[in-house]
Write a structure and sequence with these properties.
The protein has 86 residues and is mostly helical. The chain is built from 5 helices and no strands.
Length: 86
């Protein structure tokens, strides 16, 4: 997918938090914001999520994943780590 450059202005505290968080998750700021924006887009478009979330197994897995993410137990990988230099 084609990438475009976007300049944004953030509060200093928020910027420091995002930089620290992205560093701890081994993500670039761009990857972090892309993941957040894609998540927001999918939630807004509601791409069949009500069907997926109706599965008890998926719902339990989602709760476990959220807990691991929030507790810091989850290890995040950048795009290049997962897919290499495609």
């Amino acid at each position: 997918m084609k990438k475009v450059r976007v300049n944004i202005t953030l509060d200093d505290d928020l910027s420091k938090f995002l930089k620290g968080f992205s560093l701890s998750q081994r993500l670039s700021m761009s990857e972090l914001i892309n993941q957040w924006a894609l998540s927001l887009k999918r939630a807004q478009e509601n791409q069949g999520m009500e069907i997926i979330l109706s599965s008890p197994e998926f719902y339990e897995s989602l709760l476990k994943t959220l807990e691991e993410s929030r507790s810091g137990k989850m290890k995040w990988h950048g795009h290049e780590e997962v897919f290499g230099n495609e």
